[in-house]
Amino acid sequence: MRRRLQGLLQILAASTTMSCAVSAPAPEPGLGQAEPVVDKEIPTIRAYAELDRYDGEEVRLVGTYALVDVRMRPIPPAQYAGHAAVQLEGGQVFIEPTWSEAAIRPDVEQALAGSPVRVGGRLHMKMPQPPEPIAMVSVPCVSQAEIIPVEQ
Predict the structure, then answer these.
(1) How, if at all, do strands 91-95 and 116-124 pair?
(2) Which one, of 15, 104, 111, lies nearest residue 65 by Cα?
């Protein structure tokens, strides 16, 4: 918005300058010029096999919300501590790195378990490293996640 406003002000200033018949020096390339607005479409992914192409990019995952037992030795019955994933066709993607505080999803969101969702965020084919060395799984996750229930 700010860049568009700057561009409009430059156009207004240029037209005012021309109407006053005063010549202003041409701006140096790259200085004071608004960058072109690029409307980048965010890819929508429904199948695990599609993930590799989008490592490190903003994506929208469409699948089923699932609670995940992240214990090193998940002996039944499952124990959920608030970690979640989106189940795609052929695999799942964790919602936030398991070591992150953001990985513990709010109770209201956990109630979506088994429901179709769209999850937007940055895709990591391998979870980012934690600030402190710990044992962790090396699986895909999405960070800065935004969960949107899908109406059926």
Answers:
(1) unpaired
(2) 111
Residue pLDDT tens, the chain, 152 long: 334 334 433 433 343 333 333 444 444 444 444 444 555 799 999 999 999 999 999 999 999 999 998 877 777 887 788 999 999 999 999 999 988 899 999 999 999 999 999 999 999 999 888 777 776 667 898 999 898 888 76
Report the length, in residues, of the chain.
152
Where do the CATH 2.40.50 domains begin and end in the chain?
44-149
Q: How many Å apart are CA 65 and CA 94, to the nearest integer?
A: 10
CA atoms within 13 A on the CB side of 112: 23
117: which 2 tokens?
């969702």
Q: Which CATH number fits domain 44-149: 3.30.390, 1.10.3470, 3.30.200, 2.40.50?
A: 2.40.50
**DSSP run (H or E) holding 145:** strand 141-149
